[in-house]
Write a structure and sequence with these properties.
- This protein is an alpha/beta fold.
- The chain has 2 domains: 47 residues, no CATH class; 304 residues, 3-Layer(aba) Sandwich (Rossmann fold), CATH 3.40.50.1820.
- The strands form 2 sheets. It has an 8-stranded mixed β-sheet, sandwiched between helices.
- A hairpin with an 8-residue loop joins strand 3 and strand 4.
- The chain starts with a helix and ends in a 6-residue tail after the last helix.
- 38% of the residues are buried.
Length: 368
């Protein structure tokens, strides 16, 4: 017994000297490439292993309970696959056009960016639905063209859950490049969406008369003629969407351009009922604003897919949607053949960069 104890003590001492030598061989600082080897004992294994992070879920389901925000409750699919990138890359093109829609005698030179999904073939037989997206305050048509954000658009379509569409990125600003310094600082530069004194809110005319005829003839879309009759006939294949100030613009487009767009996707913005940003609008005023357009065109169907984020992201939209859900104009649900209004809530903060994640939900419903 004494002999065995002596051997054990000697081995323990040798191990301690060996470990001390390893730790001090670089000026007393442990070398990062070396790690102590754990023994096979359960106690040593528990102290030597670092706790591992839980595996990432490709899809996280974010919900609110019925009655928590709206009567029906909400469900949002947060697709983390959009962060992974893909080899299936789409392309951006620039389309220049002019507009004289603002009754001031000025012809404005403007442009929009057009995203063509992976596999787009201009000579092929496949036709594409078109989504028009309007950016938020201070941004411009290049809002999603940066590599890191374009990658999320590419990954969006690579999931296979979302059918490929053409995305068009115009701007309500009259000179987004020339006014860049002040635009990026405050967003308060000449614009056609009703938020600039001295210019009428004729952005909807610019979209109908100038943007659509400049863009759609270049691409494989469903529009067969580009006069008023042809644009109205192809409304089922056209969606208007926007984020923040662009979301306000989306509600405005519903009021002013219902014959030309069947689908609407306002994100993180409440309906301003024709008022400027920051104005107080009641639920009743917002509802009347939308109902006016529907009553003017009783034979036209439509679908509104609204979305927003955490509690402080467009909180007024939450109260409006709870009110709209109960009104006679709307049938709430995510089946466009039966319903015309739907709402989803993420846990995102307010940022245009989250638009591809919202589209992952929206584009599984619209055009269906």
């Amino acid at each position: 017994m004494a002999h065995n104890k002596l051997i054990s003590t000697t081995i323990t001492a040798a191990l301690c000297i060996s470990l001390l030598s390893a730790c001090t061989s670089n000026g007393g600082t442990p070398r990062e490439t070396e790690r102590p080897v754990a023994s096979n004992s359960p106690a040593d294994s528990q102290t030597a292993q670092m706790p591992s992070k839980p595996p990432r879920e490709d899809i996280e389901i974010i919900t609110t309970e019925p009655g928590e925000v709206i009567k029906a409750g909400t469900t949002f699919e947060k697709c983390n696959l959009l962060d992974d990138g893909t080899d299936q890359k789409g392309t951006f093109e620039r389309v220049d056009y002019t507009t004289d829609a603002y009754e001031d005698g000025v012809t404005y030179e403007k442009y929009c960016n057009v995203y063509l999904p992976y596999g787009y073939d201009p000579k092929g037989e496949v036709k594409y639905d078109v989504v028009y997206f309007i950016h938020g305050n201070k941004n411009d048509p290049g809002v999603l063209t940066a590599d890191i954000l374009k990658s999320k658009l590419d990954s969006l379509f690579a999931t296979g859950k979302v059918p490929p569409v053409i995305l068009v990125f115009p701007t309500y600003y009259m000179d987004a490049e020339g006014d860049a310094v002040e635009r990026q600082r405050t967003g308060l530069v000449p614009a056609g969406d009703g938020n600039w004194e001295g210019l009428p809110a004729n952005f909807y005319l610019e979209i109908i008369e100038d943007v659509i005829p400049a863009v759609e003839p270049k691409y494989a879309v469903y529009t067969e003629s580009f006069d008023e009759e042809g644009l109205i006939a192809s409304r089922d294949h056209r969606c208007f969407s926007g984020y923040s100030r662009g979301g306000m613009c989306t509600w405005y487009m519903f009021h002013n351009a219902l014959p030309y767009f069947k689908w609407y996707s306002p994100m993180s913005a409440n309906c301003m009922a024709g008022e400027t940003m920051g104005a107080e609008v009641t639920n009743e005023e917002a509802y009347r604003y939308l109902k006016e357009a529907a009553d003017e065109h009783p034979d036209l169907d439509f679908f509104i897919y609204a979305a927003s984020g955490r509690d402080n992201d467009a909180p007024v939209l939450r109260t409006q949607m709870a009110y709209f859900e109960q009104q006679e104009l709307f049938s709430y649900g995510d089946d466009p053949t039966e319903n015309n209004l739907f709402y989803t809530l993420s846990d995102f903060a307010h940022s245009d960069t989250k638009v591809p994640f919202y589209y992952y939900n929206t584009l599984q419903v619209i055009f269906q």
